[in-house]
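Intended use. Records like the one below are meant for learning the mapping from a protein sequence to its folded structure. Do not use them to infer anything beyond what is encoded.
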Amino acid sequence: MSDVLVTYFSASGVTKKVAEKIAGENGYDIFEIEPVDPYTAEDLDYTNSSSRSTVEMNDKSFRPPIAETCDVSGYDTVVIGFPVWWYTAPTIINTFIESVDLSGKTIKTFCTSGGSGIDKCVSDLQAEYPELNFAKGMRFMGNVSKAKEWIENE
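Structure written out for the chain above:
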């Protein structure tokens, strides 16, 4: 077992590909954060004010239920990957964080995004969970050559 766990939420498959590449190339364990009800294309339509993702992101207290959680106790570092929604992490990431014990772990987040960076995502999560140790995040567009150095050294 690796001391690094790569977890991820992927609505359209982009983040999944990046997470699988990071885990596969570096021998890390991997876990997919899956919603009980998968997101459809209509759910993800950010231009529709009544779409599921818009409604969820407008209510920061909403926690979309996840299909299952995992045991993180054997890991020193937990990597959490996600697409950027409304300039921050999707609320399903909060569901995951609140379902596991991340105290004493180094948490590294990565995002996939066409334009938004990771810094606001990390600062929002730090503000929500000040007791947890969030390290510098990374944005990946497909090339994960810097992932190992970022995860293990920064």
